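Good morning C.,

I know you're traveling, so I'll keep this short. The sequence:
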Amino acid sequence: MTTESIQPVSFRQFETDFAAFSQALGDSFARYGFAVISDHPLAQAGIDSALASTKAFFALPEPAKRAYMVGQGGQRGYTPFGVETAKGEAHHDLKEFWHMGRDLPAGHPYADVMPPNVWPDEIPGFQPGVSWLYQSLDAMGLKVLEALAVYLGLDRHFFDATVNDGNSVLRLLHYPPTTGEGPHIRAAAHEDINVITLLLGAEEAGLEVLRRDGTWLAINPPPGSLVCNIGDMLQRLTNHRLPSTTHRVVNPAPERRGVARYSTPFFLHFNPDYQIRTLPGCVDAEHPDRYPEPITADGYLRQRLKEIKLL
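The tokens, ready to paste straight into the viewer:
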């Protein structure tokens, strides 16, 4: 395990020195596939409220939770412990989770691929608290994409129309206490499918990123930080200029095995019909186009969900 750390980028620079913010954030992503954003604007009271509702849901009896298993691919509601399995892995991850997606108006053209949300009746504050967190992370993700657009030499608002109705998902994650070492771990090594991921709850140890030399780098952000990483869709769009890096959540040290881990990754997605076509500015003689055939965001998502046994 390397002792290197990812240096946080202060979100205060977004307003005071956007060019510096864009450069520092893009450089971190280009090097690690990950960035740590400090001083983010999300209200701690709102985060605490959503986390309290999350803990209350996962404390429900198993039959009550399973009543909210709906639809295909775990797109909405509850996915129980022991289902999700990383691509190529024989052993399932040690986690259960809840998914909230975008609320669409009646008759929306994406309604056939973005089902309505479900909400647990047992927890009155769940819907407003979790909806606030979804909307806050969705807005924050757009600001990160503004910075990345400039870093890539694009118009600052290039990504606005590509994600405004994106199939983005907020995942409420519960990793129960563990009893020992493998073969199962909390989240086996994997890459994210989506455009970018914004993660709250990484202060509890366990998240590790695979460096290019094959060693693992622990992500230990300062309290109140947001961890962000590049997903496979953006890696494909940028011809790997921004890499989607392998990461995992390892089991805790013996003294922390009795402690559950909670986190709330927000998987920001393109609009379902967006054509992921390699950006011309990311192709040159030294970097030929790895993906000459475009694919829709929904088509790509479905391919990947089958690989991790959610479809």
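Safe travels,
E.
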